[in-house]
Amino acid sequence: MWGMIATWRMAVEGITKGAEMLTNSGNAGDAIEAAIRQVEDFPYYKSVGYGGLPNEEMEVELDAAYMDGDTLDIGAVAAIRDFANPVSIARRLSREKVNSMLVAEGAEKFAHKEGFERKNMLTDRARAHYKKRVKEMTAQAAGKELKPYSGHDTVGMACLDRMGKMTAATSTSGLFMKKKGRVGDSPISGSGFYADSRKGAASATGLGEDLMKGCISYEIVRLMGEGMHPQDACETAVYRLDRELRERRGEAGDISLIAMNPKGEWGVATNIEGFSFAVVTEELEPTVYLVTRERDGRCTYEKASDEWMENYMKTRMAPMVE
User: Fold this and answer.
1) I want to staple 79 with a disulfide (CB 3.0 to 4.6 A). Which of 68, 104, 147, 249 is the partner?
2) Annotated binding residue 82
């Protein structure tokens, strides 16, 4: 049995590529890296990789991580600029005994030394998004500080190959208009991702500052390790963290998780409306589902219609007007 599950519709082309590799007895590490690179390279997915949305200084700072569920090796980069495919840099770092998480200039020096591709990740489209946002903020309240807003959808994946190896990986440009140097949950082990081939793998998307308050990816893997089905583990962990944050702080940011166990069973949970995910297994072709959260914290999902899929791409590829 093999399988892949990922956050958001934007991952479906990536997991399709990964599935081709897994079908031919490919390695879960190679498959997940290739799948996330597919998302990173597509300029119309504005929250990941090339064309990712910039920080308040109009710089694209990227975060990414990779975890090997067999060895528990982890590699991560944060606030890295001007390099394509940060997930590949993260995977390379996972082979280091020490210094396996690097940030900003240190990550860039390592990537350059290792021969990774330099690339200006700020596209004309992303620049237009930035200028449009500046105009909106100016119109709303002259002189007020620019603040982050929606557009922080992380691509996170969990993967299982035929040998039973599991991996998890993430990639994101983080919050649009974030402070320079801001890092969310995506490259933080246990929060944005976690993989253990004996228990399962999970990955998160949402507001990093709140996701980090619960180490939620690790919690889901822990629950699966105790015998809980991935769906129940996701719903339990998301519901508990959402409730805890609302009780203690009065509110909770976006929290959405995907997971898979060593049997190829999978699950999802969210505290928002509009979450989508993509999944493929030996028995299921690459499919996008839309999630509905019920009042009791349970989540249901249905296959995205052809119309929804068509509108999704039309919206993302529509001409930008500053």
Assistant:
1) 104
2) no
Mean pLDDT confidence for 122-128: 94
Beta carbons of 12 and 315 less than 8 angstroms apart: no
Residue 23 CB neighbour total at 10 angstroms: 13
Tell me the pLDDT of the chain averaged across its residues. 95
CATH architecture of 3-312: 4-Layer Sandwich (3.60)
316 belongs to an annotated ligand binding site: no
N-term to C-term CA, the chain: 48
Please tell me whether 297 is known to bind a ligand: no
Is 287 an annotated catalytic residue? no
pLDDT by residue (tens digit) across 181-196?
Answer: 999 999 999 999 999 9
The reply to whether 205 sits in an annotated binding site is yes
Taking only the tens place, the pLDDT of each residue in 282-305 is: 999 999 999 999 988 899 999 999
Residue 308 has φ and ψ, to the nearest 5°, of -60, -45
What is 189-224 written as a DSSP string?
BTTTEEEETTTEEEEEEE-HHHHTTTTHHHHHHHHH
- Edge-to-edge, what's the strand order for the sheet holding 255-260? 193-196, 200-206, 255-260, 266-270
Extents of the domains making up the chain: 3-312
- 206 a known binding residue? yes
CA–CA dist 230, 261 (Å, integer) = 6
3-state SS record for 42-87: CCCCCCCCCCCCCCCCCCCCEEEEEEECCCCCEEEEEEECCECCHH
Residues 6 or more apart whose CB falls under 8 angstroms from that of 69 comprise 28, 165, 166, 167, 168, 195, 196, 197, 198, 201
Residues 6+ apart with CB under 8 A from 190: 215, 217, 218
Q: Is 160 annotated as a binding residue?
A: no
Catalytic residue among 154, 167, 170, 270: 154
